[in-house]
Design a protein that fits this description.
Oligomer: single chain
Mean pLDDT: 85
Largest sheet: none
Radius of gyration: 18 Å
Number of helices: 9
Order of helices and strands: HHHHHHHHH
Low-confidence stretches: 1-7, 227-235
Strand content: under 5%
Number of domains: 1
Structural class: mainly alpha
Helix content: over 70%
Distance between the termini: 29 Å
Length: about 240
């Protein structure tokens, strides 16, 4: 994701302290419902989030070597071909978060609550670390808002593959891989569409809200829809 605003630029120790503080709060929130050792879940999630950022950086570097320049200014230009570029950004970042989650989740998984807590921790650390790097020079109000609420967006966008990972037990390796791959593709599509909408005047705000509301409503339906209707969205109804 790109820088969304400028002004009195953020940077230096004060900016890093703000990012670290907000990141710490989000890690506490993310691990509060995890089962077992909360400290271990937090440490795994932090390392997974940093690893995800590293993988995303490598992915962007490889795309650049291949001649594909993904610049926020291009997406912000508003042309529909830029939607494809936004989709590539979504695929890189959601794929990187999946890698971070897979790295951070304990081998035993210790239940869905731990998996969901770990996923939110990875997504939160990824969002804060990404903002800390990408928003250097941005205005303080925009930058702090992005760091404070970026974990919400990244956590919601990770919901499809978090659910898929939670429900692959008992499936064959091929079916499990397919389910996770489809979930990552859905997360990448939502991520790309959300980024594209941010750059659009007028309807863009509604589109961005819709992209983030979709996984939230899906998670709500996962627990609230009557059992006969859950198959329509591929919902098992197991509680996180």
């Amino acid at each position: 994701m790109g820088t969304f605003g400028h002004g009195v630029g953020v940077g230096g120790p004060s900016w890093l302290a703000v990012c670290a503080g907000l990141g710490f709060v989000w890690v506490l929130v993310a691990t509060s419902r995890a089962e077992g050792d909360h400290l271990a879940t937090a440490l795994r999630g932090i390392l997974g989030g940093l690893a995800a950022l590293g993988v995303a950086s490598i992915g962007y570097g490889l795309l650049q070597l291949a001649g594909l320049q993904l610049r926020w200014s291009w997406i912000a230009a508003g042309s529909w071909p830029a939607l494809g570029a936004a989709g590539v950004v979504g695929l890189v970042e959601e794929g990187a978060k999946l890698f971070g989650v897979a790295l951070a989740v304990p081998p035993s998984r210790k239940g869905e609550r731990t998996l969901f807590g770990t996923t939110l921790t990875v997504a939160s650390v990824f969002a804060v670390a990404e903002a800390a790097v990408a928003l250097q020079g941005a205005g303080w109000p925009v930058a702090v808002t992005r760091v404070a609420f970026g974990p919400v967006a990244h956590g919601l966008l990770a919901a499809p593959f978090a659910v898929a990972l939670a429900e692959v037990a008992g499936l064959s390796r091929g079916r499990a891989a397919l389910r996770v791959a489809l979930a990552v593709a859905l997360a990448a599509l939502l991520h790309g569409f959300a980024d594209f909408c941010v750059a659009q005047a007028g309807w863009g705000q509604a589109g961005f809200a819709t992209a983030l509301l979709a996984p939230a409503l899906w998670l709500y339906a996962r627990d609230r829809l009557p059992v006969p209707f859950r198959w329509v969205a591929g919902i098992s109804g197991r509680n996180p």
